Queue: 2 jobs
Job 1
Amino acid sequence: MSQRDLAAELRAARITVPFEVRERVRAIAATDSTAREPRFTWRRALVVALPVAAALAATIVFTRPTQHAGTALELQATKAATVPTAVPDTGAKSFSGTGHVRAGVAGVPTTAIPVPPSRTRLQRYGASLALSVSTPDGISAGVQRALRIVASLGGHPTSVHASSRGRSAHAELVLRIPRRNVQRAVTRLSQLGTITGEQVDVQDVQGDLDATSRTVTRLQGTLRDLRAQVQTPDVVRRITAISTRIASLQRGEASTIRTASFATVRLSLATPTVKVAPHHSRPGPFHWLGRALFWLGIGAVYALALGIPLALLAFGILLIVRIVRRRREDALLNRT
Amino acid sequence: MTREMTFAQAAETHLDDVYGYLAWFTGDRGAADDLTGETFERALRLWHRFDPRRGSARTWLCQLARTVALDHFRSEKRRVRREELAAAPERIDERFAEGLSADLESALRVLSAGEREVVALRVVLDLDASTTARILGISPTNCTTRLNRALKKLEGALHVAA
């Protein structure tokens, strides 16, 4: 029998559906009361609408202008100051800190932070004062007045630098002022302009000084004992070494006292910084569309960078699952 | 097949094809009876998913019938393993269809379920290669190869019987 005859015989064969099966299927079909689901459903619409809404919201959030944009003129005054309100006579050797106050010109304090030097302990005292003066001429006059104030309080300038450019000017002075007068000096200097920044650094050196004094006293005792002994070459050599050591320590002590007796005040005078806001042109009709496309582009790049490897991985897994399932199916059907 | 076709119409029109396919596929009329009912129950549940633009109702029902039959084969396999029966279930007295010669009936027993399936779809139901391939989840070329192999095997079995 040829394949054609074979096929013809197979086609001619009839398989009659048993009556019970037909009735059962009709009974099943009779229970069909469901209408065909329309292609547009709220559920499907929601699946599309939610991501679109999220993307739109993200675009608006990322592309809206900031609150401060568009201010024509902004005057800024910054006050940086050391926070401690009093210098402790004992305790920490060094302390300093900064507080940052941002306010308009009218809100800037006009008096210096009262941090008086200690009367009982030796301290290294440093202060920085930034003042705003309205005109370049005011800067020049301020420098002159500052020098006079310092001289009247027994101090001297170690460096003076002044510069002007157009309507802005700036001066930097480093002043050495006797420690006992530094509070008065800062108070008087702060009246040369509007305080825009202030910092006070106080370092306690009394502890070091006391330790050095104790060492000197101890070495002097040792020296006395050695001088009372028979003056052998070894004793003489030790006496010389200790004497040298005592002299060195006393020199250091004197230097510390000398340095600490003067405070360093850095005075900065400057005309106010006028910050002109950049000119913002009115956005065109396609501005937001451009912004949205920009962010969409960024999103697309990220999506591609992350999505392609993930898609390849998912495709590979799907392929493997299909192959395995097909092989199992074939094995099942060949066995049956 | 129009989009407006109801499930009842589809069931009435294609019941013979589905039943015939399952009978050939399983080689067991009793199993085909049960599986036909199961197929249409499942089809009723999933009828809302049927999209006439993607294929005919007959193709869709045959795909469902195949899934149901595969589940049946799997459960049968587990049952046989559980009962530790080495031989396949007895189906000697079963007839595939009315009008087949005794030689062809016995030759058909030589074919595996996979081979009977492709013969049923391509020859008995007269589906084209692409539709059959879609139901089987294989390529049309693979489908044709399977059919040729099955028919050759059937031919060989007929020669032996003769």
Note: Helices of chain A lie at 3-12, 19-30, 42-63, 136-152, 182-189, 206-228, 233-260, 287-335.
Job 2
Amino acid sequence: MLGFVARRLLYLVPVLVAVSLLTFLIASLLPGDLAYVILGDQATPEKVAALRHDMGLDQPIWWRYASWLGHVLQGDFGRSFRTGQTVLQAVTERLPVSLELMVLAELGALAIGIPLAIACAVRSGSAFDRFMTGSAFGMLSVPAFLSAILLIYLFAVELRWLPATGYVPFEEDPVGNLRSFLLPALTLALGEWPVLMRVLRSDMIATLQEDYIAMARAKGLKPSRILLVHALKPSSLTLVTVTGINIGRLIGGTVIVESIFALPGIGRLLLGAIFTRDLIILQGVVLFVALGYVLMNFIVDMLYAVLDPRIRHGHA
Amino acid sequence: MATLELSIDQNLAVGEVRRTHRLGPLFWAAIVWMVLVFAAAALAGVLPFSPTDMDMLERRAAPSALHWLGNDGLGRDELARLIYGARISLTVGLCAPVIGLSIGGALGMLAGYFRGRFESLVVGSMDVLLAFPPLILALAVTAYLGQSLLNLTCILGVLGIPAFMRVARAATLTLARREFVIAAQALGATHARILLRELLPNVFLPLFAFFLLGVAVTIVVEGALSFLGLGVPPPISSWGSMIGEGRESLEVAPRLAFIPAVTLFLTVLSFNLVGDTLKALTDPRQSAL
């Protein structure tokens, strides 16, 4: 296991370096000089040249990358030239909102997906199973921004049960906080559950045909115990991987959902930076999100190796 | 009792496999819808109405004989905007996966056939591209490059390369060990001949099925970017931007958000359905759904 972790960690290093390089190159090589963006169109060439010199933009590109990377390694992701806030401050301020949203969404997806998967697997091939797998397939074609509109229309415009937008900090009002997260989390969960349900359903059908399940039935164990204890655990291996693979989609969905429901998370920070052309924040957030994504995938890999010995011995 | 249940399950499994080989009415419905959307997009220029003519007196007008789907918030004909929007969604949705298919497919086949250092290099560089959540990368690059149809297509195309590479490489890896390839090698065929004449025809079908699924994903991502106001710049209409605009008037005229929403959904669903059916046909191992 240690050897596996070491190998994966070693592989992580070049990926992280390449990610930082790509983030830097996207921000540096593409048209639009940062100095012009900061000073505006009316800036005199002398002023622009002076600022370029101050920011080190007149240095060769590899030198700029090295010094930028040096700062990043010391935890200095840069500072917004619009608000004066550092990237790190801006990100840590908004991270809890995004994390809460993602956790609630994933929990919601599991809460919908697991029971449906079990119900379908038990009666695989029945009308209920075919209806649910069909709906799951249909739901895969509903992007987050569609279900968001639909949910807003249903619960905020027609029924007026929940707020359409707005954010209540948890410290102020825990119930109000959960209410403000309900629709956004449900939006993301609606896109996630079909994936989880499809995977768990097919794994579960396979597990239910194993001999030890027949054995448990023969012993006269309660069906609920067989399903939840004997069948669910060995069937949930792929579920872990799929959850990991879906993190990227979930992050993308978070940006859209935060924008629609006006939640002050990382996604809104990113979009705000794009619309105000706050390129330093943009660069910092992209790097930060990519780093977080790579690390999360690493953790999922590790988790999977813990669950399935074949992976850590390199036979899969 | 357990044995009885097992035998039922096996019968069902056989039935399912047979069902996927017969193309059901849903498959043909999806094909018909795709043809309809294509035809509408292709004939948009011939149609007698404009997507940009504003009629300020008829803002959010209900559907009528003149305006079949009514008008939007600026008095523009909703049906015309929907049809011109189909042009954008289909242009991006088809062209971007073509980029991914050709570059990713070629890289994947070369990597799977030649193996060695080249394969490690290709897989490694794709891992870097995959290290960014796709939508985040698309947003960031659009922000720097600027919004235009060409930029959008290129960005989404490049984002698709890793996935196509993986499919092509996986298919090539298994095919390269098959007898017909070994026979061709024994006959002294060149690498180019083996790749183009022996492997390509076999890799193409799974790649094409994946291409259709890629179209569905691309239409969704393009819709999301336009919805956020970062797709093609106005006044060009795209389904995503129409949904975004319709969201503002959800209380007075929900129709303006729901009409493009349903159109987008049906189109994405059609591509998913046809792609999934073809995938099941080309891959004997995956018979489900």
Note: Residues 1-20 of chain B have pLDDT under 50 and may be disordered.
